[in-house]
Amino acid sequence: MRSSEARFRTTLDCMMEGCQLVGFDWQYLYLNAVAAMHNRRPNEEVLGKKMTDVWPSTKNTEFFAMLRRAMRERIALHEETEFEFPDGGKGWFDIRCQPVPEGLFILSIDIGERKRHERELERLNRLYAALGQINQAIVRLPERDELFRKICQVLVEDGGFRMAWIGLPAHDNRLAPVADWGDENRYLQSINVYTDERPEGHGPAGTAFRENRTVISNDLMNDPTMEPWHAEAGRRGFHSCAGFPIRLRGAVCGALTVYATEPGYFQDKEIALLEEASEDVSFALGNFALEQERRRAEAVAQREKHFSDTMIESLPGVIYFYNREGRFLRWNRNFETVTGYSAEEIARMHPLDFFREGDKQRILERITEVFARGESSVEEYFLAKDGSATPYFFTGLRIVFDGEECLVGMGIDITERVRAEEQLMKLNLELEDRVRQRTSELETANEALALASRAKSQFLATMSHELRTPLNAITGFTGTLLMQLPGPLTPEQEKQLKIIRNSSRHLLSLINDLLDLAKVESGKMEMTFRLVIAQSVMAEVITPLRPLATNKGLEFQDIAPVEDITLLTDRRALCQILINLINNAIKFTDCGSVSVELRPGAGSVEFIVADTGIGIAPEDQPKLFSPFMQIDNSSTRRYEGTGLGLHLSQKLAELLGGVITVESEAEKGCRFILTLKNPEP
Fold it and tell me: Which residue in 254, 404, 418, 553 has a CA-CA distance of 20 to 30 Å to 599?
């Protein structure tokens, strides 16, 4: 019997779990070596003593209530509990109680490391969610201060931090808070943070601003650089702090500071996510700066336009300009006063209508001269609505307005010159000088408008690059993480990364569609027509899309003649059209099939994309090819999309010399037919 007991104790001594045996009077009868580590005291100090004497603080705890119940009811119990030691330390243990003849056998497993991992995962999940909220706020909020306040709110309410604030430099070298959240006890009003070398400038916020780097204090109360704030921070329970620089076009312009209530909070992953958040804020500030520049450019253009309008109205005589077809584009109020015609009447008239029949040929020659040589002038009688004719001196200048050649003209009443030749000669000299002056001013205004247009084009080019670059980076790095090159992922991390990757791809696709549409509508989309094999193009498009249909359980068919069909077209544009049509067919089909057919005709080729999806009612079909339009535009619609795909596809088809038509009924599927002319190559 003693031999068996000895072997049993030897077995318990070798176990990796803490083993304790207490009697019915709660005295410790046995503890193994692991139990001593769990108790944080030698077994010699515990054996023979009562549990309530060894651990007086456990008398009224749920943990001891569980032990009493197991002892009293002679039942086995299992519980995970957080245990507080007399020295103030804490530990997490998995406790299993089993009644034995001697009393109660207690098995303890240290699960502190697992709990730490769980808390870390929870923190990271909250930080990922907060980062997503910050990115949404950057896209949604138009004002800087409103965005700063939202970022601080998200970091506290979603990211789990105790407090967050953003500071910008003030005139006295202070880092002045412009937004904060979680500062219920007015901590920021009780402290000063500086950006220079004084002691109050060496905390995380001041150092991050001054040295343009991330600064971490994971033990705030024992960090000598945090001494100026120990008292106030301690009263509010701050134990960790981190500062991150905020940049505008690469230069530091502020700092983001966050606080946590537990020491050692900021580890590599938390720091990386917060640095990403600060970079996103910096990116948003760059966008705000570009928007302000755009607004300033627009304001300058508006002022210049107002100035030119005022100049035109203040000039004597009649001012006007019209295009090569003789359609009036602009005139001053004096033009209406002199001629007696209303604005509506002038808009429908031709410049020759204001001259006598015998004078029209001479006027036409001068107009032709302006468009051919750049300028001309003439003296002729100006015909009013009531039939009266007044001698006028007209000057004309050729300009380019909105990409169209126009004639800018001024007419001056020269009645006094007819009456007196000498006075007329003097007046002519003055008029010519004034015409040149006013023409120069108009050219200056036109140049200002061209400058504003270039600024707008530069803004669009910059925005397209700035949008594509971070999105490509997000997609690339997300793919790297999903391939688990940096390390293994949990299922939840993989799920969230896939959401990030799909969202970035969707947004990049939307940006590309918008830019392609802008090129098409501005006439800058370049087409390269070459001979291609139609079956090859169809196969190139179908191969990557077939799995999408298969994953939805759809039958996917492709039908094409055996003999090659040669087509003169732009391969990239044709592929883009087919991808849009097939993607739509798969997206709007929940069951059944999708088919793609190549059908040659007399002098044309048809690509037919058919599905058995939701179909389109006849009254909704006219909306199909409108931009940003979906048949179901309600807030609860089932299918996502911007409504750009079909509009862009139709535009591209027109550039290819073709057209897209549709045949459909509600709930009976759709047939989209792309018809391209195919003359003999």
Answer: 553
Distance CA 149, CA 167 (A): 11
The Cα 330–Cα 621 span in angstroms is 40
Question: What's the pTM?
Answer: 0.40
Range list of H helices, 74-203: 112-140, 144-157, 187-190
Give the side-chain half-sphere CA count within 13 A for 465. 6
Residues 6 or more apart whose CB falls under 8 angstroms from that of 396 comprise 366, 367, 370, 375, 376, 377, 407, 408, 409
The pLDDT mean for the chain works out to 81
- Which residues lie below 8 Å from residue 228, measured CB to CB, with a gap of 6+? 191, 199, 200, 203
Tokens of residue 394, six digits: 């007209």
**What is the pLDDT confidence band of residue 628, given thresholds at 50, 70 and 90?**
low
3-state percent helix, strand, coil for the chain, nearest multiple of 5: 50, 25, 25
pLDDT for 108 beyond 90 = no
In tens, the pLDDT along 480-518 reads 777 777 778 788 877 777 677 656 655 655 566 666 556
Q: How far apart are CA 601 and CA 481, in angstroms?
A: 49
**Rg for the chain, CA atoms, rounded:** 40
As a whole number of angstroms, the distance between CA 452 and CA 455 comes to 5
In this prediction, residue 88 carries a pLDDT of 65
pLDDT in tens, 370-423: 999 999 999 989 999 999 999 999 999 999 888 889 999 988 888 888 777 655
Q: What is the pLDDT of residue 131?
A: 74
What the chain holds in terms of domains, given with CATH numbers, is 2-110 (3.30.450.20), 116-291 (3.30.450.40), 530-677 (3.30.565.10)
528: which residues sit within 8 A by CB, 6+ positions away? 570, 571, 572
| Burial class of 574 by CB neighbour count within 10 A (0 to 12, 13 to 18, 19+) | buried
300, exposed or middle or buried, with CB in 10 Å at 0-12, 13-18, 19+? middle
